[in-house]
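Deliverable D2.4 — example input (structure tokens):
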């Protein structure tokens, strides 16, 4: 994938298979709005240990009992 960045990859995946959820994981804190529109959720690498699993769960539409009532911010 050296010729494409994450935004380009996400856009192409959504074009080919729009039903596939995409979660962007990045160390960048300032993600442009147009990039965020191409994905279903964003998780900062700094927050990944605590937030990645809950975000995956939310995006996939399954909420395990230990996360019910939790607020998950994309």
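Example output (designed residues):
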């Amino acid at each position: 994938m050296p010729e494409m960045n994450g935004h380009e990859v996400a856009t192409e995946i959504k074009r080919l298979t729009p039903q596939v959820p995409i979660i962007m994981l990045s160390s960048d804190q300032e993600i442009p709005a147009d990039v965020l529109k191409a994905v279903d959720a964003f998780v900062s690498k700094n927050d990944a240990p605590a937030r990645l699993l809950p975000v995956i769960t939310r995006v996939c539409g399954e909420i395990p009992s230990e996360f019910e009532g939790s607020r998950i911010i994309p």
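The longest helix spans residues 48-60.
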